[in-house]
Write a structure and sequence with these properties.
6-stranded mixed beta sheet; 16 strands
Length: 411
């Protein structure tokens, strides 16, 4: 005679609750991102550097060498020029918020959980904390996602004063080239998206890099068809890293150092996709002992890949970010290589490596709305529903584009 499934015992199922593995205070976060790069731009900076006031966010840069140094012989006459050497870069504030909603019933009916002789009920997960956790997850995930938003069709929203979106990292660091750029200069980084009909970028933070030689990021290219440089043509990924490394080195002159900025490798890191990390790791592994002589030969993993001490980290958003040009100036994922319109002969398929300096990119927050938690308010149309929001006024500020770089695929 066959038995009866436990689900058919109504008395048992009606009067017995489930057993929850974790406590009422614990809720495993399955929508947490694998990495959060925003903190790398905040770490080590003074509070008054990242939290400010004012009508906008601005900084003054020394952008012109006045050329006052000269050789002379005694008795020479001179004409002195009061050169104007500075440039102001400025961005507007952007406004964001996150919120949580609850009803009286879902909170109050969980209050005063009892396990007495007369009445019994248990709280398996506290709804109040669940709402709080969900709200902060949404806020921090949303801010992280905004760091890698496509600039191409967002010029009006990012660059213009009446827009509503923050700058993203690819606004400042990208592979965009301009026909007006001289052959010996990096591309100006002005996005254009002919396919969507969006406005072309003409300035970045109010300045036109085609007229401002230093307002450009560094760039290095590797052969998309042979990233390991098997043909020994010195155009593999490691060759590109070698080239970019020297473009990102800034040394002090040894005299009046207070007027100069040195490179701190401790603040630099490389952001890339999962494909980028695994491809780089593959080439390290192929180098065997010449790269890492002391490692355990039984463990093929390189858990913390780096170049010149710079961490190479996987950024979740870059796995499928539609940031890179295809045919007709459309944009597509860099890893999949699916190009708008199905063009053939595309030479930009492959991972990008963003070499970033945390000293020269800063998320700036307004002091009046620095993750400001508002009061719990009554919902205007539902008497037992309440809303609480967190307000953030901020934007992403870059005060030196040339101290960052990108490694990208090409022919």
């Amino acid at each position: 005679m066959a038995g009866t499934a436990l689900s058919q015992y109504n008395d048992f199922n009606t009067n017995t609750t489930s057993a929850f593995l974790t406590s009422a205070e614990d809720l495993i976060n399955e929508v947490q991102k694998k990495t959060y790069v925003l903190t790398r731009f905040i770490f080590g900076k003074d509070f008054d550097q990242i939290v400010q006031g004012g009508k906008d966010i601005s900084d003054t840069l020394l952008t012109t060498d006045p050329g006052t140094y000269q050789d002379y012989t005694p008795g020479d006459s001179f004409q002195f020029n009061n050169a104007q050497v500075s440039t102001i870069v400025s961005i507007p504030w952007r406004f964001s918020f996150g919120y949580k909603v609850h009803t009286s019933q879902e909170i109050l009916l969980q209050a005063n959980a009892q396990m007495g002789d007369r009445a019994r009920f248990m709280v398996f997960k506290k709804v109040r904390k669940m709402k709080e956790q969900a709200m902060w997850t949404s806020i921090l995930n949303g801010m992280e996602a905004s760091l890698w938003r496509l600039p191409a069709n967002n010029e009006a929203q990012m660059e213009q004063a009446d827009g509503k979106r923050q700058n993203s990292i690819p606004v400042f660091i990208n592979e965009q080239d301009a026909t007006s750029a001289a052959a010996n200069k990096p591309g100006d980084g002005l996005f254009t998206d002919t396919a969507s009909g969006a406005a072309e970028w003409t300035t970045i933070m109010g300045r036109n890099p085609t007229n401002f030689d230093h307002w450009r990021c560094q760039r290095a290219q590797y052969d998309f068809a042979d990233p390991g440089d098997n043909d020994s043509s010195n155009d593999g990924i490691f060759d590109a890293f070698d080239s970019l490394y020297w473009d990102l080195r800034w040394q002090l002159p040894g005299k009046r150092n207070e007027f100069f900025d040195a490179t701190s490798l401790a603040r630099k890191f490389v952001a890339t996709s999962k494909t980028g990390v695994t491809l780089y790791t593959k080439f390290i592994r192929e180098g065997n002992d010449s790269f890492y002589a002391a490692r355990d030969k039984q463990d093929p993993a390189y858990v913390n890949p780096a170049y010149a001490g710079m961490d190479i980290i996987r950024i979740h958003q870059l796995d499928d970010a539609a940031l890179y040009p295809g045919d007709n100036n459309g944009y597509t994922s860099h890893d999949g290589g699916t190009v708008t319109g199905g063009a053939t002969g595309v030479t930009n398929t492959g991972p990008r490596y963003y070499c970033l300096d945390g000293e020269f990119i800063t998320p700036i927050f307004h002091s009046e709305r620095f993750f400001a938690e508002g009061p719990v308010k009554d919902h205007p149309f539902q008497k037992d529903t309440f809303v609480q929001s967190v307000d953030i006024w901020w934007n992403l500020f870059c005060n030196s584009r040339q101290r960052h770089g990108i490694i990208y695929p090409g022919a």
